[in-house]
Amino acid sequence: MILPIVAYGNAVLRKVCDDITPDYPELQKLLADMWETLYNSNGVGLAAPQINKPIRLFIIDTAQIVDDFNDEDMRKYPGEIPLKQIFINAYVIEESGDTWSYNEGCLSIPKVREDVTRTRKVRLKYLDENFAPQEKEFFGIAARVIQHEYDHIEGKLFIDYLTQLKKRLIKKRLDDVTAGRVRTDYRMLFSK
Question: Which helix (H) or strand (E) holds 71?
Fold first, then answer.
């Protein structure tokens, strides 16, 4: 089932999310719905708060980014792509490497894209879809998508990395999203 994406302005997007256990109600259905929602919205990542669930769960599939890249892009933005993965109860152990800017967007903040600076590497500990403990380092585009989705479960958004000037320049567009004055090709849940 395709779920509505929570729009900027909803308090769930600012909540530090809770861990879950293997007996989380209907987890397999939730994961299937998240994948369907992600693909329906043409996203590369989706975190549970974006579907109104304040839990430490996110998914990524960077195949779409690979499709959009040419050979020069692949050299400029290397990484473990394509990468399709589920992350449960993820925690960053370390962010390292050079920093680099890349133009990011967010399904919860449609029609807004800005350059965000992040590190090239991130090491996470997390549980996979079978609740098996994992610890792994990701780099490049995969690391960026993971860092973006990880921020969601920590109550952060990509716009938090912008300068005050940039935030002032996009304020009207953010207000439009909060008020529901934006059109998307996917279902959204706007604040009231």
Answer: helix 71-76
Q: Where are the domains of the chain?
A: 5-189
Contact 17, 56 (CB under 8 A): yes
CA 38 to CA 192: how far, in whole Å? 24
Cβ atoms 137, 95 nearer than 8 A = no
So which residues are the catalytic ones?
Answer: 149
CATH dotted code for 5-189: 3.90.45.10
pLDDT in tens, 132-191: 999 999 998 899 999 999 999 999 999 999 999 999 999 999 999 999 999 999 999 998
Q: How far apart are CA 64 and CA 27, in angstroms?
A: 25
Over residues 35-62, the pLDDT tens digits come to 999 999 999 999 999 999 999 999 999 9
Is there a cis peptide before residue 4, judged by omega within 30 degrees of 0? no
Q: What is the pTM of this model?
A: 0.94
- Cα four-point dihedral sign 74, 161, 120, 134: negative
